[in-house]
Write a structure and sequence with these properties.
Layout (H helix, E strand, L loop, with lengths): L4 E5 L3 E3 L1 H15 L2 E10 L1 H12 L7 E5 L6 E9 H11 L3 H16 L7 H19 L6 E4 L2
Parallel strand pairs: 1-3, 3-5
Antiparallel strand pairs: 2-6, 4-5
Length: 151
Amino acid sequence: MIKNLTVNSDRKIKINKNAIHKIISLLKSEFSFDVISLPINFITSEQIIPINTQYLGHNFSTDIITFNYSGENDSFDGEIFISVDDAFSNSKKYKVSLDNEIIRLVIHGILHLLGFDDKNKFDLKKMKKEENRLVSEFEKNTIKIIIKYDC
């Protein structure tokens, strides 16, 4: 288990916390970062809308929001919010499993904390390439993440 990493979820969602710790551990090995404090929150689309509105000025649901409280890219004091409802929609849209989409979103959040950005086409392409590489690596480990999801 990774010290200072917490995994929280809404009552509709049961997450395999050990699997999330395993993903973060693999990412730590890959990128050599420390975790000062990193809550990863698995929530509903209804819960992510007010966060998106308040902090990003977007009054709609989104699949992930990442906050880097320290501004550092190698010692994380941050927080990740993942909308499992939006992840579920993405999994149907892209014809992948919900677990695959959750893995992608966790990776996406960590890449943001590492300093990757997706605000322009060039940066988005670079970030997606890294995401795809890591998802392919992690698929070999076949990690079961979602234990229960009442959509």
